[in-house]
């Protein structure tokens, strides 16, 4: 069977759909993942065949045609509408190339991550089922609706009155953390995937002291939010811990010199997380799920509004502590770290959720649901 | 469970393990894939955590332990012994790195390519069950025996008198191609894998006519390739050369030929013909895609598995043949339906074999006391 995966425009959302795509490939299906030129290497370096459908980039959806930045609204509802319209533009840019590819390649089914709105359209255009896969534990209703509005001209051109619905929804949120009103879904175990690089022995061996990983997020630059990061190194590094700071090379360089118990730079989460006692992050969707997989307690500072919902749920579950963004001083972060490290229930609950996840159907079983869908719709 | 995969001596000898390694990881296990320094990009770009355990290159081990350069004899037993000893020295170079990795990361299984001769030693030293992964094609037993003999000093250091026995073995050779004397093994369906690329439009938007794909991996001399391509252009088929970028650069822009760094398994379709040098990975990929093959002269040809492929009717051997004879072989394979029919039979056989995901439980289940 031919399965067309449609990639989102940034690495994190692509990482989420890589396991299902690899599982499909390893079950003998022909798999192609389509996306913009600038994500081709992300796709191929996951061992998947790529096809480039546009030269435009996701981040350019934040700009006007003349290159000026579109102002990002502060009001939450306006922000969701704004984000949805950006995702709509992203789909618009991908669609021409994507439809042309589908006409030639003739997929049997299309799989897209949430927020990849070109996927349902190309599936209907090709007359094949559409599978939507959750990329994190968020529930972006208003974003979905605004994206559909932005894609109005495409819907008309293709003869649709609304965004085509998914024929199968694959969710990666463990049942005990799902919202009560979450739509019916084929649940799939989340398998972390991260950028690959050189693995060193210190990454997977640990000493006696607790190991804390601070994931700075890819948006931190030496100019932006740098004080917070250098403050964290000073305050968290002063605890009796081994501190890792996952940061881009220029940021890591700017943080140096570092104390003996601190390392900064590229860190593969899937190698390091199993050795960690605590991960501090901005609550990015894939980072949170990855640490849940490894059973690591988390300290979450949800800077992005969409992360607030699942951060609260994981905090209520007891596997994470939330620090509101307005309270993110280095002193407060260090104090919160001390609390999580000193309270065994965080580790216990993190292990509980990890065990729950380990019993969920894996990518191969979720793939079987996709195969059934295709067979019944023929 | 932590599962350590160990690569073979080249990318081609390691690709067949990739789908299984991915499947083990997708089942929720932790996977490391160890190999030679030069293979790190190959492993990492399969989406797998890559660990370097050696840095000496294979040609470096044409020099023996006394520092004397070894002249490889003509094909035959003497050559097999010499080549096996090269593999043995190459493996010895990786042993310390592997031992340290097993000690520090504490894998619970080691799954090694059949040519990764240090893997069973490191597994034994760590008390870890070892799984031998074989293609059972182009893996002559004399290579293995000579490699192990060369590893005598390392065995002695580890207190071993012989190669530790494997806990399990896996083979991707379809039953009718497996040598009758091969070790019993769990069958595994071969899933074609090579380092992936973006698809060029011709790969999906071209015509439906047959393609002749020339897989120019290995050390095929470009001038011979020029002759071959000139001859192939006479055929009523689309001519495609897939090769590493440096080989393609050396070819310039031959008219009427598509050049691309496209994985063989992605570029071929039933009805095509593949011209290649008989390496196990390419053989298996052609079979999995139901594509007949024309085998060029060179290592590991002439070889037992090439003869079996010919007997099964899925390949034409052209060992020692001129460019003209290779072109003739391609013409015959394109015109004669029996090759395609035989290729479809072999593919059906491969499709009967268990998938990587099906094998994971058997390789991670508890070891009986």
TrEMBL record, chain A:
Keywords on record: Transferase
Source organism superkingdom: Bacteria
Erythromycin biosynthesis protein CIII-like C-terminal domain span: 232-369
Coiled-coil parts of chain: none
Domain Erythromycin biosynthesis protein CIII-like N-terminal per the UniProt entry, residue ranges: 22-217
InterPro entries for the chain: EryCIII-like_C, EryCIII-like_N, UDP_glucos_trans
A single GO molecular function term of this UniProt record: UDP-glycosyltransferase activity
PANTHER family, sorted: GLYCOSYLTRANSFERASE (PTHR21015:SF22), UDP-N-ACETYLGLUCOSAMINE--N-ACETYLMURAMYL-(PENTAPEPTIDE) PYROPHOSPHORYL-UNDECAPRENOL N-ACETYLGLUCOSAMINE TRANSFERASE 1 (PTHR21015)
Name of protein: Glycosyltransferase
Lineage: Bacteria, Bacillati, Actinomycetota, Actinomycetes, Streptosporangiales
UniProtKB/TrEMBL annotation, chain B:
Erythromycin biosynthesis protein CIII-like C-terminal domain mapped to chain residues: 228-364
Molecular function, one GO term: glycosyltransferase activity
Domain of life: Bacteria
Domain Erythromycin biosynthesis protein CIII-like N-terminal intervals: 22-215
Transit peptide in keyword set: no
Keyword tags: Transferase
Name of the protein in its database record: Glycosyltransferase
UniProt source species: Streptosporangium saharense
């Amino acid at each position: 069977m031919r399965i067309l995966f449609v990639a989102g425009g940034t690495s994190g959302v692509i990482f989420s759909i890589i396991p299902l795509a690899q599982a499909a490939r390893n079950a003998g299906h022909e798999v192609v993942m389509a996306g913009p030129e600038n994500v081709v290497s992300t796709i191929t370096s996951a061992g998947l065949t790529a096809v480039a459908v546009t030269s435009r980039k996701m981040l350019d959806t934040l700009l006007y045609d003349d290159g000026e930045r579109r102002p990002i609204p502060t009001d939450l509802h306006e922000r969701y509408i704004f984000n949805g319209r950006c995702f709509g533009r992203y789909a618009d840019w991908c669609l021409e190339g994507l439809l042309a590819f589908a006409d030639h390649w003739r997929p049997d089914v299309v799989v897209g991550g949430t927020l990849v709105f070109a996927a349902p359209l190309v599936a209907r255009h090709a007359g094949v089922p559409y599978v939507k896969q959750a990329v994190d534990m968020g529930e972006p209703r208003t974003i979905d609706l605004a994206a559909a509005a932005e894609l109005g001209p495409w819907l008309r051109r293709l003869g649709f009155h609304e965004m085509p619905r998914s024929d199968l929804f694959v969710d990666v949120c463990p049942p005990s953390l799902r919202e009560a009103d979450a739509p019916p879904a084929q649940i799939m175990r989340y398998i972390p995937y991260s950028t690959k690089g050189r693995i060193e022995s210190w990454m997977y061996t640990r000493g006696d002291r607790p190991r804390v990983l601070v994931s700075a997020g890819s948006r931190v630059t030496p100019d932006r939010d740098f004080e917070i990061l250098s403050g964290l190194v000073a305050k968290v590094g002063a605890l009796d811990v081994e501190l890792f700071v996952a940061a881009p090379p220029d940021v890591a360089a700017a943080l140096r010199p570092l104390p003996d118990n601190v390392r900064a730079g590229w860190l593969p989460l899937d190698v390091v997380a199993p050795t960690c006692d605590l991960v501090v992050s901005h609550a990015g969707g894939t980072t949170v799920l990855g640490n849940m997989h490894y059973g690591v307690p988390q300290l979450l500072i949800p800077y992005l509004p969409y992360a607030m919902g699942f951060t609260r749920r994981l905090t209520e579950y007891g596997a994470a502590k939330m620090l509101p963004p307005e309270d993110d001083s280095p002193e407060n972060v260090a104090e919160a770290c001390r609390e999580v490290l000193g309270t065994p229930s965080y580790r216990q609950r993190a292990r509980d959720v990890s065990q729950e996840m380990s019993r969920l159907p894996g990518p191969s079983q979720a793939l079987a649901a996709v195969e059934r869908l295709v067979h019944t719709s023929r | 469970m932590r599962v350590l995969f160990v690569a073979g001596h080249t990318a081609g000898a390691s690709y067949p393990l990739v789908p299984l390694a991915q499947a083990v990881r997708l089942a929720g296990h932790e996977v490391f894939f160890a190999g030679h320094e030069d293979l790190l990009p190959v492993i990492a770009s399969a989406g797998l955590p890559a660990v370097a355990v050696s840095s000496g290159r294979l040609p470096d081990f044409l020099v023996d332990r006394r520092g004397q350069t070894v002249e490889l004899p003509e094909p035959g037993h003497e050559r097999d012994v010499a080549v096996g000893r090269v593999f043995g020295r190459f493996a010895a170079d990786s042993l310390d790195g592997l031992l340290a990795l097993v000690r520090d990361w504490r894998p619970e299984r080691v799954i090694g390519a059949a040519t990764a001769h240090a893997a069973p030693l490191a597994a034994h030293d760590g008390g870890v069950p070892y799984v031998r992964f074989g293609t059972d094609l182009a893996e002559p037993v004399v290579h293995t025996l000579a490699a192990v003999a060369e590893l005598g000093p390392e065995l002695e250091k580890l207190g071993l008198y012989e190669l530790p026995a494997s806990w399990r073995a896996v083979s991707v050779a379809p039953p009718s191609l497996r040598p009758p004397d091969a070790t019993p093994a769990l069958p595994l369906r071969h899933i074609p894998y090579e380092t992936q690329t973006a698809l060029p439009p011709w790969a999906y938007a071209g015509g439906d006519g047959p393609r002749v794909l020339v897989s120019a991996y290995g050390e095929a001399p470009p001038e011979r390739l020029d002759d071959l391509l000139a001859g192939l252009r006479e055929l009523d088929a689309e001519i495609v050369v897939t090769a590493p970028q440096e080989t393609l650069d050396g070819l310039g822009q031959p008219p009427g030929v598509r050049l691309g760094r496209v994985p063989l398994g992605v570029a071929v379709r039933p009805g095509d013909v593949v011209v290649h040098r008989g390496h196990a990975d390419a053989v298996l990929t052609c079979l999995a895609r139901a594509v007949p093959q024309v085998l060029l002269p060179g290592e590991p040809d002439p070889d037992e598995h090439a003869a079996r492929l010919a007997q099964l009717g899925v390949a034409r051997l052209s060992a020692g043949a001129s460019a003209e004879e290779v072109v003739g072989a391609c013409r015959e394979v394109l015109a004669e339906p029996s090759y395609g029919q035989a290729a479809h039979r072999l593919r059906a056989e491969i499709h009967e074999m268990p998938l990587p995901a099906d094998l994971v439980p058997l390789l991670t289940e508890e070891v009986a006391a």
